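$ ./design --mode recover --in tokens.txt
reading tokens...
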């Protein structure tokens, strides 16, 4: 997560822009990927940090386990 944030900050060269891009990537993109009815995008959404955190908090076993 830190590497992603530092990389975004280096590309955007603005702290506010990096935080905005990070929130969009972590909160909005997974929701969009799950709503598109293509199998590979739905499978890809399961490996993003939001889904992994949800599985960790609920105690489910999944692709990241």
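writing sequence...
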């Amino acid at each position: 997560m830190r590497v992603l944030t530092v990389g975004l900050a280096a590309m955007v060269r603005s702290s506010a822009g990096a935080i905005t891009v990070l929130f969009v990537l972590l909160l909005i993109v997974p929701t969009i990927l799950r709503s598109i009815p293509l199998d590979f995008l739905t499978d890809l959404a399961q490996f993003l940090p939001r889904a992994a955190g949800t599985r960790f908090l609920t105690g489910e076993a999944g692709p990241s386990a």
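exit 0
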